[in-house]
Design a protein that fits this description.
This protein is an all-alpha fold. The protein has one domain (31-152). It has helices at residues 6-24, 36-41, 56-64, 78-90, 111-116, 122-125.
Length: 157
């Protein structure tokens, strides 16, 4: 008769539960505390999007095209641009959900984003309080803190 080693069994069970929880979490990237210059410069116009939402190549193209940043001149001095580019690349998405470069380097066109928001109708995106899929903070009440969990969603009417 084989005797079970309960401490090992408990440890293996805990590891399996942790792995399952990570997979159930949708392969989400860990939250990264933004550097102050990122919050100050990028967060002045929109949510300072977590760098893990895009791959490094997308961030590099976005930072290299700041004079034409989605129809706006978001130019920065070369030192700030270099610093932000390095930080964004270092923390860019490498997980399954964010490793593919989305069309036009738009987070809102990434396959994972479209899948997560499939219940949102075109009319909802056009509500005056929302305006577009890029306005995360309209529905994600903790977006500025990098929390996009479903528990924190309040869709404005």
């Amino acid at each position: 008769m084989k005797v079970l080693n309960l401490p090992r069994l408990a440890l293996a069970s805990a590891a399996l539960m942790a792995a399952s929880a990570a997979l159930a979490d949708g392969d989400r990237a860990p939250r990264i505390t933004p550097i102050p210059v990122y919050t100050q410069e990028c967060g002045a116009c929109h949510v300072a999007y977590p760098p893990g939402l895009l791959p490094a190549a997308s961030w590099q193209r976005l930072m290299g095209n700041l004079p034409r940043h989605f129809g706006t001149d978001a130019s920065l001095d070369t030192t700030t641009t270099a610093s932000l580019s390095a930080w964004l690349s270092a923390h860019a998405g490498t997980r399954r959900q964010a490793s593919a470069e989305p069309p036009q380097d738009r987070i809102s066109l990434a396959p994972w984003f479209v899948r997560e928001h499939r219940e949102v109708s075109a009319a909802d995106w056009k509500r005056p309080a929302i305006k577009s899929a890029a306005n995360c903070a309209a529905c994600h009440t903790q977006a500025a803190q990098g929390d996009f969990s479903e528990r924190q969603i309040r869709i404005p009417r």
